[in-house]
Amino acid sequence: MFEFVDLSHLQKVYKDDLRKIQNIIKIYIETIPGQIDEIDKFDKNNLTLLKAKVNTFKTKMTYLGLEKVQDLAKELETICATGID
């Protein structure tokens, strides 16, 4: 799904330690589907809490350098801010 993943942030944080970077990516790969599912099933009537969950998710995607996912998270934030279904 992703053509390019920018790992420069992780490289900087972990000083090019490939083992640490791989561990972080593994953790995210294992947890991201659950987080997306959580957002999808979240009570849409509580937009404040939903916005917080989306923001946390977006931060994680920024950390990983997944720009396409960041863009989708930004769209969700806009929807939460406007209250549009």
Please, could you describe this protein's structure?
The chain is built from 4 helices and no strands. The longest helix has 24 residues, at 18-41. It is elongated and about 45 Å long. The protein has helices spanning 8-13, 18-41, 47-64, 67-82. With 85 residues, the chain is mostly helical. Helix content is 75%, strand content 0%.
Strand content: under 5%
Shape: elongated
Number of helices: 4
Taking the alpha carbons of the first and last residues, their distance comes to 26 Å
Pairing-aware structural class of the strands and helices?
A: mainly alpha
Number of strands: 0
Radius of gyration: 14 Å
Spans with pLDDT under 50 lasting ≥5 residues? none
SSE sequence, one letter per element:
HHHH
Q: Can you give the helix content as a percent range?
A: over 70%
Please outline the major beta sheet: none
- Whole-number average pLDDT? 77
Topology at a glance:
Blueprint: H1 8-13, H2 18-41, H3 47-64, H4 67-82
Helix pairs in contact: 2-3, 3-4
Keywords:
mainly alpha, 75% helix, elongated
